[in-house]
Structure formats: structure tokens, C-alpha cells
Amino acid sequence: MSVVAESTHGWVLDACSFIDQGYSRCIRFMKDNQKSHVKCRFKRRCFQVLKSYCNASANAAVDGGNTEVLQKTDKTSKKRKRKHSELNQGEVDSQAFHEKIRSVILEGTKSLVDSARSLGHLNGGVTDTVKEPLPSQECSLAAFCEMAKELPLVDEEEQEECVQLLVAEDGCTSHVDLFSRVTENRADWATVVTLMGEEYVIPPHTAFLLSDFTRIQPLVHYGRRFDLMVMDPPWENKSVKRSRRYSALPSTQLKRLPVPLLASPNCLVVTWVTNRPSHLRFVRDELYPHWGVDVVAEWFWVKVTTSGQFVFPLDSPHKKPYEVLVLGRYRSPANNSTSSPETSEVPVEDQRLIVSVPSALHSQKPSLSEVLKPYVGTEAKCLELFARSLQPGWTSWGNEVLKFQHTSYFTLTPTDDRGDVPEDEATDDCVDKPTVTPESSSPREHCPSTVD
Questions:
Q1: N or C: which end of the chain has fewer CB within 10 A?
Q2: Can you tell me the distance from the alpha carbon of 332 to that of 227, in angstroms, rounded to the nearest whole number?
Q3: Which residue did the predictor score with more confidence, 131 or 428?
């Protein structure tokens, strides 16, 4: 269960356990055209944040009921030393926002951490600590999306064929077009397949499209209207520019997302926002109104260590241990004439907290599936935009949509326990090894050449 504690303040999540739930049964397509049953677990090393990212003496322990401002860390370069009077407007706004929500974060986190500890969580007792290095798989998916732009778009007449199966009905597949068709895994079990020369773990009942803005049309033509949309845009900031981890997107470009074409009436729209005040204002005052979305709440993701401490001091002037989520409801023009008691939305409480140990992998956010279920229903159709991973039962889109599905992030263990997987699915030979067009021995060396 991913929700380990819950109260009026919010929830405590076990993000790693939630990931594992989708891979309790898994079929692996091997190089010799055989299929085997394996157990997949996301690598625990990714969620072993044992200490705060600061000196021990300045740790922001939640259970103390107070948070000390970080006084001393590594030596700060002279270039970054400035007097308080020299704060720019953005920093002044950030400080004002922090002071406004500080008590909510501190008191709510303390209450939730105490509840989790009483149930045996966040006690710092990591018994299966793994000392292996973090996975460092080079992700070339965004580069593939760029190269795929050289390929012709799917003709209007072929739009009805914009969906393809990851594994065909006969149990085999030889060509999968990831760039211009939505790919579905309709099986009740996860599948390990080779795509573009690399192995990926695909969860059950999931659909995905690997593309950027210029090739998002297949998602629109997919024909689904979604009851929940979650997005984590690649916001512009100095850290991203310095690290070059991914290509940032100007805020104004987000208005190009076809949210009104994808949202069902009263769709719940959730956007991850950095702690930069200009981004928060943009979402609330420009982006959501542009889409016809009304802001209904702001939530906070609070990042703690395995012992329940803030990962950064709460009052640190540089990095905060929380991020903001802006929640809104899509109001379609037809809402007023078609709404009824059966379709009216569940009210969303403001200032709820989501407390969890964060992944040590950059930009891997915890799944919100469990905490949002009461507000959209158990049968809701869910979509993640700018996704870097897949979730069972969800549709996902982005130019790195398979990033954290790479097998380097998982521990795969052969097993004879096939669960409910049909006998023929677990053992039958396959005529063609599942690969993706274009075929190449190394996805970093060749450009896509053909697309079905």
C-alpha cells in the first residue's frame, strides 16, 4: 500500500512500494525468442535518502517541533554573497510565500510523520540498505523524438490507426512505432520488451506516446477524454541550465497543450510547480484560465529522509524541502447544461500535504494515483503529461516517457511463480523478438530510419 498514514493534514506515501505494485507479475521477452516469468522491483537504493542535504548540526528535524535556519554549510563563493537588501523581487516574493505557508508545512509534517512512526514507518531503520551506486542510464529518448521529426506525419486517413498493441494478439510483435502511435499494453501483467535496442518494463493496462509538442496529435486522436490530468512541466530555472539534465520549456509554450481537447467535464488538472513565484503566478493567473480551468486548491509535496527529517532545512534561503501542486477543475462550455448530481465533482480540500522520501533520481515524482482517487473516482481515466515513467491504468505522454522504465532501474529476478499469467503466455515461443522500428544495436549511434 503506497499510503502508509493519512489525516486531515494529508498523507504519507511509500513511493517505492507503489511502483512495485504494478510489477507483481511480469513476462520477459528474451533474446532467444523465449518468454519467462520474472519478479520486478524498483531499486531500493533510489529511495534511501538517509540524511538531510546539509551538515548534521543543521538538520531540520521534524520531531523537534522547530526548524533551525541553516547557518553553515559548505563555503559559499564570494560571488553568491549578498546583503539582505540586495534581494531581487523574485527572492522577496519567495520569502513572503514561504512565511505564509511555513506553519502549514511544519505543523502538518510533524503530525503526519508522528502518525507514520507510530505505524513503523520513517524510523530510519533501513534494514536492506544497498551500497551500490545509483542507476545512471543515459537517456536518449528526447534525442530520438527530435530525429523522428524528420519522418512524415501519419496521414489523416490513417488517424483511426493511431493505436497499436505492445504485444499482438498472437503474443508476438516485431515492429512498434513509438513516435506517431499510442502504444497500449492491454495485458493483466507487466511486460519486459526490447525497444530501440534497450529493455524496458511496461506496466499492465497502460498506454503511452513518445513525442514532443510537434507530434502530440496521436494523443488527441486517441479519442479519450480524461478525468484526471497530472503534469510536471520542464520549468526553466538556473539549476537546469547549469546541469543540462533536460531541455527546459518556456512557460508560455505550455499554453499549446491541447488540454480542452483531452479533458472531460470537471476533469481534475494537477500541475507540479517549482518554488519560483513567477511560475506559480503563471499557472494560477494565465495558464489555467487559458485552458478554462478553475483553481480549487494548492497542495504541497514535503520531502523527508527515511528518519522523517526535512531533506533541506525548512528555512534554507536556497532550497526548500517542499514543492507546490496547483489543482484545478476544467470547466467545459457544456458543463452548465450537462452537469448533474451524478457527475458533480468532489470538493478538493486546500493546503493538503503529501509527505514522502523522495527519489534520488532527478525529476522522479511520487505517484499521486492513490491520494487523488477520492476526488476523481476509482474508474477515472487518467493522463500524465511530460511523464518520465508509466503507471498501471494510466495514459502517459512525453519525450522521455519511458525514462524510468528502463531495466537498469529495476531488479529482475527469475521466478517460477507465474501467478495468474496464462501458461501459454509464460512459456510459448515467439516468432519475432519484440523490438521497435527503427532497429539498431545501439540507440545512441543511429537515427530512426523507418516508422510503420
A1: N
A2: 12
A3: 131
- Tell me if the pTM is above 0.70: yes
Residues 69-78: pLDDT tens digits? 223 333 344 4
CA distance 266 to 376: 9
Distance, in Å, from the CA atom of 305 to the CA atom of 309, rounded to the nearest integer, reads: 5
Is the peptide bond preceding residue 438 cis, with omega within 30 degrees of 0? yes
Taking only the tens place, the pLDDT of each residue in 9-44 is: 999 999 999 999 889 889 988 766 678 899 999 998
Please state, as a whole number, how many other Cβ atoms lie within 10 Å of the Cβ of residue 289.
Answer: 13
